[in-house]
């Protein structure tokens, strides 16, 4: 119970930091919405996919973009705690040590999932009409939570190892690169052969394809298992690495 109580208390501290930061809200919520509007109404006219269909086509990629933008701030704020000596102060207090990392992960999960829901509601306002039933919505939410958790643990690792808070969020550009070289914004069939092979066999594509099929077609695709598997593998690897680095830093 102590771990849970301490995690909740520290999560409240982090949520206050996140919600009071105007630049965080602008970057995490407003920028993905602007990206969505730009792709639909500026670039969408040049696509062979009808604009009405294209709205649903890019929604999964925009949701992942929202998560990636958000976890960059999680890495930034974690690194500030490390470099400013906050971690050492916490370790001198009678709190569960595992609650320190857990609070950063939980804050990231709450904040970024909420941001993604806001972006999704914005998609509904511009004409996105999902066909998902209750089961498909639940699976979509579960996958979004898994993706956010996986990205959060990646952020935790980079936040711990970065030398400064300015470089802690650099990893997000790598994730964005994966996002753009995937099926997120254009069909992989339109990519050059070399990029197409990479796009079809990297983690973002089955995740995006699964969310797209769930939301726009209202059915569970065959890739759903692969999408969850990718998320699970990333969580296990980066959680283990983060905990190892954390223990070494706190010795």
What is this structure's SSE topology?
Elements: H1 2-20, H2 22-43, H3 51-83, H4 86-91, H5 98-125, H6 134-161, H7 165-168, H8 171-180, H9 193-200, H10 204-217, H11 224-249
Question: How would you summarize this macromolecular structure in one to three sentences?
Answer:
The chain has 251 residues and is mainly alpha-helical.
List keywords for this structure.
single chain, 251 residues, mainly alpha, 0% strand
Could you characterize what this model shows?
The chain crosses the membrane at residues 21-44, 56-78, 99-125, 137-161, 168-186, 224-246. The structure is a single chain. The chain is mainly α and 251 residues long. It has one domain. Helix content is 79%, strand content 0%. The protein has 11 helices and no strands. Helix 3 packs antiparallel against helix 8 (171-180), helix 3 (51-83) crosses helix 10 and helix 6 (134-161) packs parallel to helix 11. It is elongated. It starts with a helix and ends with a helix. The model has no long low-confidence stretch (mean pLDDT 85).
């Amino acid at each position: 119970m102590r771990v849970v109580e301490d995690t909740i208390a520290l999560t409240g501290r982090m949520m206050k930091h996140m919600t009071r930061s105007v630049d965080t809200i602008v970057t995490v919520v407003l920028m993905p919405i602007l990206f969505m509007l730009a792709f639909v109404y500026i670039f969408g006219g040049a696509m062979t996919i009808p604009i009405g269909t294209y709205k649903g086509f890019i929604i999964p990629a925009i949701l992942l973009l929202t998560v990636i933008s958000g976890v960059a701030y999680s890495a930034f704020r974690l690194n500030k705690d490390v470099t400013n000596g906050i971690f050492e102060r916490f370790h001198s207090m009678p709190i569960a040590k595992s609650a320190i990392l857990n609070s950063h992960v939980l804050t990231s999960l709450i904040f970024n999932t909420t941001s993604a829901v806001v972006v999704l509601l914005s998609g509904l306002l511009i004409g996105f009409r999902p066909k998902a039933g209750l089961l498909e919505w639940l699976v979509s939410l579960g996958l979004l939570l898994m993706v956010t958790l996986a990205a959060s643990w990646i952020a935790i690792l980079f936040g711990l190892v970065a030398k400064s808070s300015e470089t802690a969020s650099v990893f997000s550009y790598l994730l964005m690169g994966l996002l753009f070289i995937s099926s997120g914004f254009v069909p992989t069939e339109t990519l050059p052969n070399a990029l197409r092979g990479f796009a079809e066999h990297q983690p973002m594509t089955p995740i995006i394809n699964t969310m797209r099929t769930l939301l726009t077609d209202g059915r569970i695709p065959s890739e759903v298992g692969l999408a969850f598997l990718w998320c699970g593998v990333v969580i296990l690897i980066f959680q283990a690495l983060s905990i190892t680095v954390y223990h070494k830093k706190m010795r």
